Amino acid sequence: MKKLHLLIVFLISSIMAFAGEGMWIPMLLQYNEKEMQEMGMRITADDIYSINHSSLKDAIVLFGGGCTGEIVSDYGLLLTNHHCGYDWIQKHSSVEHDYLTNGFWAMDRSQELPCPGLTVTILREMRDVTEKVTFNVNDDMEEKERQQLIDENMKKLIAEVEKTTDYKVSIKPYFLGNEYYLLLNEVFTDVRLVGCPPSNIGKFGGDTDNWVWPRHTGDFSVFRVYADKDGHPATYSADNVPYKPAKHLDVSLKGADEGDFAFVFGYPARTSEYLPAVAVDQEANVIDPIAVRLRGEILDIYNQYQEQDRKVRIQYASKHAGLGNGWKKWMGVTEGINHFHGVEKKRFYEESFQDWCYQSRQRYLYINLLKQFDEKYKALEPYKVAYTYLTNAGLNIEIFDFAGNFNKLSKFTADTPSEEVEQTIASLKKASAAFFKDYYQPIDEEVAKTMLREYLEHQSADFRPSFLNEIKDVDAYVEILFKKSMFASEEKVNDFLDNFKPKHLKKLQKDPALLAYQSMIDFYLDVVNPKMKPINDDLARMQRLYMKGQMLMEPEKRFSPDANFTLRVTYGKVEGFKPQDGKNYRHFTTLEGIMEKENPDIYDYVVEPRLKELYNNKDYGRYADKDGTMHVAFTASVHTTGGNSGSPILNADGQLLGLNFDRCWEGTMSDLIYDPDICRNISVDIRYVLFIMDKFAGAKHLVDEMTIVE
Ligand code: ARG
Ligand code: GLU
């Protein structure tokens, strides 16, 4: 039996170590160099990350707070995804200048649009500070005392380093708190919008194609980083100059063939690869399916109304995108985990871990971990479920969520300073205008009925907000709610805000939508959170120990730390996949596919006339593939997650091949378990990006700034 286990452990470990999996710390890349070179890489780890000379890392940025970008010229020219630049494009759009619909191109630098609030962060250096941060700390300590010591050590260390540098200093835990790294970052605050394609290109396929391969989205936008005359970050000024990076990425026009080595360099946000089986099972088979079912019902209601009415389609487009993104992803997680037998494989691994624990007395810290995981996760489950209902059913009833904006006001008294009242009223007026612009009451009424019914059917009285326990007839409750609550009527809300007097507070305090919102919040604060918090605190400690135990058990294995929104390198191959028996996906798509998908009646599939013209004339210039077609997107077996949007995907020479923007839904389980057979990231081909800039938009001057390798 033991032999069998060892064999399985070996098999799993070797799968885990298989190229493709792992989000590697750039400063430790020398440990991966050999494997990367064996897979085809022609550069060195030192070319990718170095603090002694310029390296690729100097061209990689954290774009805003949630995406990655890369610098592609000596004049601070930056590429990221269209969906990452979306908010900034939208902010500059108006009816006269509808950049979302029509695209935008600055034909010279004076036309570039400042984006106050947008930051670009570049990592200058990282240092292993584990010893200093965990000084005087051990695993037998009370967790609270341990954390206090760690916090103090970090504070001291940050203060020390801050004295020696102008960079922003921070420390982040890796390997679930077993290691700590200090990061020195430079934060640029003058970033300008340079260009973006029309949404028909940048969002082609929209939500219908989101998470799906084959894909044809030209998901890119262009910005420029500015600095003061000395190249230092500065707030916006007309005197600022384009930032000259220590290194910019070269752009390859050669494309990539099946099997070619490729790597992604960027900012993955969060993965959980070291969870015990019980947690993966719970996520994939309890929590995600509930969220998928609830969101699916809401999306069905949206669809039904969106199909009937153009205005409603636009009003609910962004809400649909938001709900649909998680809905499709979690469906993929469940399917992938079960199809790949992820839970069983983790269980096998855990049995061998348990055997390892029994082999030495010194492993006492780990011996009960797995048993305790099972207990803790079981104890957590009803509250996690309750939380899932709260966020996916309760708070997706728009009238409740909107009423929540008035919660603060409802707590005011006659003594609240008038200045604070005025400010609150002013911001509520804004919130109200924004809400009603995109609100269609029949949808919300139907969502309310459906979600409340779900709630009453599936959650017992102790696991739902108290207002639900007074509802006898859902239809009657919802009808009265929408009749009585002022939040159902823009007129009533405006009237209330325009003529606000403290004596009106009573009316607000009795509003049924606000009462429902408060009941949900109280349920979270009084019931859910007090139960979940202590369990989660215990779990954090146990996960840290479990991680440490795994590393001790397999000292020869290279472990990669879970994503934590810091710079990482991940690598694999350009390749297609077989998502199902009999289905075989090629690794790239072309412009022909855009023409195949074209449908002038479906918003997501409208094709720009200019793009059709270029297609008909096969006017691809030097951006065509050697097969003569225009490649649009491609897949690779590179381990990515949210936050990797906009990340460069690079070839064996470290040249830009494309911009990562999504994954295939069949492989979204890669946040929990990576399987090189079905986990694929999706990138837009850089040649399509340049083709759109140059041939479609006539912005060749931007391409001319770049270093092109033909
Ligand atoms: N699925 C991608 C992500 O997780 C892209 C989302 C934006 N695109 C969209 N069509 N909604 O962020
Ligand atoms: N679209 C995701 C993002 O915005 C990347 C896709 C993924 O989750 O892999 O970060």
Key terms:
46% helix; binds glutamic acid; 710 residues; binds arginine; single chain; Thrombin, subunit H; alpha+beta; 7-stranded antiparallel sheet; globular
Can you describe this structure?
The protein is of the alpha+beta class and 710 residues long. The chain folds into 3 domains: 2-119 and 189-271 and 562-709, Beta Barrel (Thrombin, subunit H), CATH 2.40.10.120; 122-188, no CATH class; 277-548, no CATH class. The protein has 26 helices and 22 strands. Helix 14 runs antiparallel to helix 22 and helix 17 runs antiparallel to helix 20. The chain starts with a helix and ends with a strand. The structure holds arginine (ARG) and glutamic acid. Glutamic acid is lined by residues 640-645, 661-663. Glutamic acid (GLU) is lined by residues 640-645, 661-663.
Sketch the major β-sheet: 11 strands, antiparallel
Average pLDDT reading:
95
Number of strands: 22
Percent of residues in helices: 40-55%
How many whole angstroms does the radius of gyration measure?
Answer: 27 Å
Q: In what range is the share of β-strand residues?
A: 15-25%
Count of discrete structural domains: 3
What would you say the CATH architecture of the largest domain is? Beta Barrel
Separate helix tally = 26
List the helices and strands and how they pair.
Blueprint: H1 2-17, H2 30-38, H3 45-48, E1 60-63, E2 67-71, E3 77-80, H4 82-91, H5 99-102, E4 104-105, E5 113-114, E6 120-128, H6 130-133, H7 143-162, E7 168-174, E8 179-188, E9 190-196, H8 199-202, H9 206-209, E10 221-227, E11 241-242, E12 251-252, E13 261-266, H10 277-308, H11 310-315, H12 317-339, H13 342-358, H14 369-392, H15 398-403, H16 407-410, H17 418-437, H18 441-458, H19 474-484, H20 490-498, H21 505-509, H22 512-553, E14 568-573, E15 577-580, E16 583-585, E17 588-590, H23 591-597, H24 609-616, E18 631-636, E19 648-650, E20 656-663, E21 681-685, H25 686-696, H26 700-705, E22 708-709
Parallel strand pairs: 12-22
Antiparallel strand pairs: 1-2, 1-6, 2-3, 3-10, 4-9, 5-9, 6-8, 7-8, 9-10, 10-11, 13-14, 13-19, 15-16, 17-18, 18-21, 19-20, 20-21
